[in-house]
Amino acid sequence: MKHLMSPLDLSVEELDRLLDLANDIEANPSRYSHSCEGKKLATLFYEPSTRTRLSFEAAMLNLGGSVLGFSSADSSSAAKGESVSDTIRIISCYADICAMRHPKEGAPLVASMKSSIPVINAGDGGHQHPTQTLTDLLTIRSLKGKLGDFTIGLCGDLKFGRTVHSLIQALIRYPNIHFVLISPEELRIPDNIRDEVLIKNHQDFREEVRLEDAIPELDLLYMTRVQKERFFNEEDYIRMKDFYILDKEKMKLAREDMLVLHPLPRVNEISTEVDDDPRAVYFKQAQYGVYVRMALILTLLEVEVC
Ligand code: NCD
To answer: How much of the chain exceeds pLDDT 70, in percent?
Structure first.
């Protein structure tokens, strides 16, 4: 049985197959509409979510399956002190597959060790968010035609933003990618990603503070919000939260074919005036998230669709 804890749990070939499947689902949704009949997905969310939880649920419903779960720790037995290990043993009796989001890094991994159903990490603290990465890869591959040969700017909270950590790990396996890491000093990429992932793999990257200095050379700009919930004090958050605001003026500095991605939710880091720019693809990206989660559920449940 396979779980998904990190994007690296899938080889490049497995990822290619998964993205191909997601594209086929996009093109032929009715072919897949009964493929998970009788199967149940449990969503165990100990932390807030809109897109990830609902896109998992929409994915399973689109496949003809059903969903159950909870959307906050307060409404589960975690509030009574139940451990993640005990909860997953119980959920294994009720569902065929589960997606878990937890504020503690490694909680879904602990769950996977006690689980008799596939566990998908739907975000663990500031650590990883592999299904957002699958969404990002599908968006890039579908809209740019390939993965590789581009310069990508990752902008915002690179310290606490788990989507960025997972995306960097996934992208270094593709050829000729240049990273521009754009953040304030305080929110730079963590040492473990810089040293163990980028430097160790001889990956080309540089760090910038000003978005204006980096934007003209980018093929892709991945904006992120400052992760309020991971700050130790409110003052630091308030000082950092509006450090970057992508607006029409800054978009004028960018290439005609640069794409703007964002895992969402957006706070102030992208002005709403950018939403109508054809280069802004973050809402399309959320739609790709449903297709790729459908493909992931089919793959982990080993459902063959003929
Ligand atoms: C991201 C997350 O939860 O890490 N959201 C999402 O799943 N699309 C990004 C964020 O919360 O900033």
So the answer is: 100
